[in-house]
Amino acid sequence: MSNANLPSHPIILGSSSKFRAQILTHHNIPFTVLVSNINEKAVGGSRATADASELVLAVARAKADALLVKIQREEDGGEEKLVVTCDQVVAWEGGVREKPVSEEECISYLKSYTKAPAETHSAVIVTNTKTGKRVEGVDVARQHFHPIPDNIISQLIAKGDVMYCCGGFMIDDPLLFPYLAQREGDEDSIIGMPIKLLLRLLNEAAS
């Protein structure tokens, strides 16, 4: 990807996710990281009844609000920048899944995807620190799976990365490659940073 597709404004990634950072780096998008420490569980109401897209937008908005306060306090006006905040959940059979809270829950998640696909809802919000303009969107993608053997699930959990991923899986883990079936949507979106949506929002926020 050419940087000609990007606005000239400095970009702040409001996420500690190494996976999102890797995607931006892969696409030659320069950025710095600044993280807001919010209680995500306190945003968006009950996960049992939440609409997945509305939930991720609510959390990403809360992250943006917290970061803007932090930036304004530290920089007192400063240079015009674009702040990117994100959130993602997996919708499955009418429920919402975030990061697994235990190994047992992760095992349950991975086994369940043979029955129905994992549907990722990835919110991206871009806020212009100078103008206050904020634009947002949600990208939805689906990943189908073949049955994942127990020994592979054990190896994935032992490696640990899946415990930090909503829905308890990483499609770019080589251990999982043989068990990935049909995909509806882009790989970047399922990982948590839909690049096409991000680029559109960056340019909208800069204009």
What secondary-structure arrangement, pairings included, does this model have?
Elements: E1 11-13, H1 18-26, E2 32-33, H2 52-75, E3 82-92, E4 95-97, H3 103-112, E5 118-128, E6 134-145, H4 150-159, E7 180-184, H5 187-191, H6 195-206
Structure at a glance:
This protein has about 210 residues and is α/β, with parallel strands linked by helices. It has six helices and seven strands; from the N terminus they run βαβαββαββαβαα. The chain is globular.
CATH architecture type: Alpha-Beta Complex
Radius of gyration, taken over Cα atoms and rounded to an integer in Å: 17 Å
Helicity level: 25-40%
Strand residues, percent: 15-25%
Q: What integer is the average pLDDT?
A: 91
According to CATH, what is the topology? Answer: Maf protein
Quickly count the domains.
1
CATH class descriptor: Alpha Beta
Largest sheet: 7 strands, mixed
| Structural class assignment | alpha/beta
Uncertain stretches: none
What features would you describe in this structure?
The chain is an alpha/beta fold and 207 residues long. It has a single domain, classed as Maf protein, CATH 3.90.950.10. The chain contains six helices and seven strands, in the order βαβαββαββαβαα. It has helices at residues 18-26, 52-75, 103-112, 150-159, 187-191, 195-206; strands at residues 11-13, 32-33, 82-92, 95-97, 118-128, 134-145, 180-184. Strands 1, 2, 3, 4, 5, 6 and 7 form a seven-stranded mixed sheet that branches. The longest helix has 24 residues, at 52-75. The protein is globular and about 55 Å long.
